[in-house]
Amino acid sequence: VSNFKIIESTLREGEQFANAFFTTEKKIEIAKALDEFGVDYIELTSPAASEQSRQDCEAICKLGLKAKILTHIRCHMDDARIAVQTGVDGVDVVIGTSSYLMEHSHGKDMTYITNTAIEVIQFVKSHGIEIRFSSEDSFRSNLVDLLSIYSTVDKIGVNRVGIADTVGCAAPRQVYDLVRTLRGVVGCDIETHFHNDTGCAIANAYCALEAGATHIDTSVLGIGERNGITPLGGLISRMIVADRDYVMSKYKPEKLKDIEELVADAVEVNIPFNNYITGFCAFTHKAGIHAKAILNNPSTYEILNPADFGLSRYVHFASRLTGWNAIKVRAAQLNIDMTDAQYKECTAKIKLLADLRPIAVDDADSIIRAFHRSIKLGKP
Ligand code: HCA
Ligand code: CU
């Protein structure tokens, strides 16, 4: 599962998030931050969506970022004509292929879809830029139809084909099977896009890579339609465990928190408490047994190293679950030194209070200080 590329869609899928409204300045700030992080592609809202969207797309193309700039359009010549004039490095084309979308959304059949796809692809290619063709709602589409259209567009030279779990219904093994099958049918790259309605978006992205996909769509904090897609941070956490060297050589995980704060602020949400990597307790260890082992060797209870993300771990000690090793470390931070037997006794006092009510760091500190004073006075 090495060698994957990230198509960062905060400025496209993310703009479809309920709270999102990005000014031109904010889009530029986000694009620059993503570029510094090292994402391979930045996908932007269709220039056909609105006049401001078109101008913003042009403005971002002019920034001269290292990341390739893509825009995302419907499989339609009207959109394609506008897209190729914006200065983008590539165009992501999408059309619904499930019976739901064919009947209730655009109302076109497979023959029409195939013919339009060919026309759009050849037109975009003639402008010398990258082209990706994707089906929307791929997991509820007819497999024979899908493979046949992907094989057709592969033959006429698309750079990538895309699979999209538009409704978030797919499970990891289903993803593996579809991507594996597609891998046997096309020679081009395979991009995948997973919505997170049932909590599978990261696992699905990982399974897609295992099955031979090359590109994963993400957004910062996973923002997008409904509850969103594969989050950038969550994908990075999964991939750093799978192949740390690759992730560290290509991306700058230490910038993740700043990017998340930038986007969270822009769309007026908080970073979730249990977020991958950046949730407030992502590197907090609480139970005495965990604290002791972590203090000996962090790898015992940590698969991610907080230092990789410019973060630090925290050993929680103000609770009834604490243990004397954690209290010993806290005492050292307070410049207090005692014997092991005394730490154990002091810990018992902290647990006594913590059994009655939730205690704060200050409460625990006061107990440690008072205990230390009392032993110096000779009456523990
Ligand atoms: C949508 C479109 C899309 C497209 C994905 C893609 C989806 O907003 O419905 O182009 O890969 O989820 O199908 O985001
Ligand atoms: Cu989507």
From TrEMBL:
Keyword Transferase applies: yes
Pathway annotation: Amino-acid biosynthesis; L-lysine biosynthesis via AAA pathway; L-alpha-aminoadipate from 2-oxoglutarate: step 1/5
One BP term from GO: lysine biosynthetic process via aminoadipic acid
All residue ranges annotated as the Pyruvate carboxyltransferase domain in the record: 4-257
Keyword terms, alphabetized: Amino-acid biosynthesis, Lysine biosynthesis, Magnesium, Manganese, Metal-binding, Transferase
EC number from the UniProt entry: 2.3.3.14
Catalytic activity: acetyl-CoA + 2-oxoglutarate + H2O = (2R)-homocitrate + CoA + H(+)
Cofactor(s) the record lists: Mn(2+); Mg(2+)
Molecular function (Gene Ontology), one example: homocitrate synthase activity
Protein name: homocitrate synthase
Organism expressing this protein natively: Zalerion maritima
